[in-house]
Amino acid sequence: MGKWLTIKELSQKTGMPYSTAYRYLEQFDQFFVKDTRARGKRYEAESSATILARIQYLFRAEGLTAEGVEETLSKEFPIVIDGETPSAFPSLEDSTPWVTKEDLLRTFERMGQYMQRLEDKLDDASRTIHLLEDKLDNATELILSLQSKIAELEQGTAREIEGISDVMKSVHENLGKSLAEVSAAQERDETIKQFIAEWREERAKEKAKKPWWKRGKN
Known about the structure:
Oligomer: single chain
Number of strands: 2
Strand content: under 5%
Mean pLDDT: 79
Radius of gyration: 60 Å
């Protein structure tokens, strides 16, 4: 058997907090080789470091419960009875690796499932984008249609306004002509009235010049 380490030394060797190393050593005590002759607890260095690292992996990476970790350890490591050292115990270099082939296969399987979920989400996102693009195209067509109708209404209104303006212009011109004709007719009437008045006045003067016995004639 090789070197013996305290809990603090094991926590430093494995790079895990002291409290974590202590909990694992107590919780899975049956898998660790201990030096029962020492006053304080001391553990066989290589095998204990390997088991601690394995426990941490099973908890964190595999997400196993304490029962699951214990079941896995019982398949990979011998159980220590009354502190006795088993005849063949795994070491850090040539024993059960921290990550087994089965662990890798399960990890790859989970990765595949995760990638499939990502692809499904990507497909859903793509379908959503296509739907939004279709809605945008429909909205664009609606806007263009409304713009066209507005332009037609504006053109129609402009034509109507132009037509009304032409009618008003024509009415104004005709009214001007009518007023001019009325004015001309009034001038002609005045001229005629003046001519008749002058003619009557001349006749009256001529009649006054005749002897009284001739005034009744003509």
